[in-house]
């Protein structure tokens, strides 16, 4: 692909010099408000730094000039990203009167992405990426290979140490850019990178760019993984569906219209859930957009036309296939390249270009019609599956009507066990979905009734990964959640109707609690995904330990925190010896207690063991609690994990458990 594209690019397009770098100005605000540029200063924002640098290398691949990206995580938590692209220009910028390399690395909104001759399409749309990474790094160095020479520049927190210098020469035709940076401890809460998190994005990019080899090395754990998938999207779909039973081989569609390349692959499995991932210029558009609408429209129309034309659905039949019927069991990846994409939506990842809908719709309609005519047996399997989905949809409609009728008889339209809050503004309200009546009782007593609602649930809800929609709606606990949240489900779902700005899952810190939390997350991910995408879903973090010495009482949320508190308390009591120096273990009805050096350590076995005041101060008070926001940073990886943990296949689940067993705390 790289060679073919290179041949098609005109001499004008091949000119990538200092004149290609356009400047929009500004950098100081990045260090003052980093979250505006990278999302947050936690682990998610930290890993976003790597993504920004890698995206520049991938943009070179999209332009036809790069076929290899190597990311190395060093032992000191510095990161190197190296590619074989054209290399950032180093000649004098005509406006800034300094090297174009320095302009790119130190000026916000500076880059070749604003110059259509340099990049036809790109993922780094705003040109802020690498300069933001530079500003948020303790130090950064850049090495550029161009025209047989090696150029170098180093920066301290975004400020150049010296001007760009030539540091040597090289032989051969290879050009490229090598960037090394160390995240700034003054900015980030942690600077420890996670191999799997980085690998997820690199794997995704390798699927989307089949001619690019992505290599990830982690020197801290002596790990290395290479991602290269010659099958591209076909391999991507197989990967997403490897734990499901596919009904046919993946259907691959490729075409281009109005300078907009479209690449799509899909297949149906015996699953009850839809698994669709959409991309624009390699950006994961988790909220979909016009490219997704075009695909759905063409899919529904083409299959319906084929079904009626070939007598698979009788005109007299009461069955009428809608777009929803073609979602069940569908796994698809949609990738489009758009010259000037317009993004909108809650997370700015929803494609808004109206022309893309008709482009995708036309290409899919034509190519899919040809495929169905040549593969009659596959067409029949898919349509049979969709007819069964339509029957389940009708049963689900009746179940929803039953829920509506029940609600109509209830003046509050809410489940009886819900303890609602008094404020009506969703932005200021939150609901705790709590495991068990005992914990629910403590939460109801300890909460702030003005803005906190409590919904206790009994035991483990239905595993929606293995259930048709009508069965999902018949589950009483799920009915209670749907009614309480208020946003509906399926065709009635509207995230704007959610009665709460925060939906907080609060379960015990044991194996059963983890299972219940996974079941709840599976339900929300499969049937209310937009609530997660809009940042409304959270996980409560109740403490594991209460540590008491004299009148001082502290809580620890994990073993590391417990050890830090113990070390400090023991240091405070140094030199004082008594009978209490001996360790005494006491089993009490509600908690496990260990006494040493006058310090009492209580291990909570469940939420119900905490009294209302303790539950409020540790887990529910907005000023002192810790809650984790659930996000869709990698929807493909999330879907994979849910299918692994909750699907029918046993082997992948066993492999997952064996691989991650070392991170599990089973002593709860």
Task: Compile the SSE list and pairings.
Layout: H1 2-8, H2 11-14, E1 22-23, H3 29-32, H4 35-38, H5 43-62, E2 68-73, E3 79-83, H6 100-106, E4 110-111, H7 129-135, E5 137-146, E6 149-156, E7 159-160, E8 165-169, E9 176-183, H8 195-208, E10 213-218, E11 223-227, H9 233-240, E12 251-257, E13 260-268, E14 275-280, E15 283-284, H10 290-309, E16 330-336, E17 343-344, E18 350-351, H11 354-374, H12 376-409, E19 430-435, H13 437-446, E20 452-457, H14 469-474, H15 476-485, E21 502-506, H16 511-527, H17 529-533, E22 537-540, E23 545-549, E24 552-556, H18 559-572, E25 584-587, E26 591-596, E27 599-604, H19 612-620, E28 627-629, H20 635-646, H21 650-660
Parallel strand pairs: 2-10, 14-16, 19-20, 19-21, 21-22
Antiparallel strand pairs: 1-4, 2-3, 3-9, 5-6, 5-9, 6-7, 6-8, 10-11, 12-13, 13-16, 14-15, 17-18, 22-28, 23-24, 23-27, 25-26, 26-27
Helix pairs in contact: 5-7, 5-8, 10-11, 13-19, 16-20
Strand count: 28
**What's the helix count?**
21
Beta content comes to: 15-25%
Low-confidence residue ranges: 1-6, 8-12, 408-412, 577-591
Structural class computed from helices and strand pairing: alpha+beta
CATH class of the largest domain: Alpha Beta
Number of domains: 4
Amino-to-carboxy terminus distance: 54 Å
Report the CATH topology name of the largest domain: Heat Shock Protein 90
Shape: globular
Q: Sheet bearing the most strands, described?
A: 9 strands, mixed
- CA radius of gyration: 28 Å
Helical proportion, percent range: 25-40%
What is the CATH superfamily of the largest domain? Answer: Histidine kinase-like ATPase, C-terminal domain
The overall pLDDT average reads 84
The CATH architecture category of the largest domain equals 2-Layer Sandwich
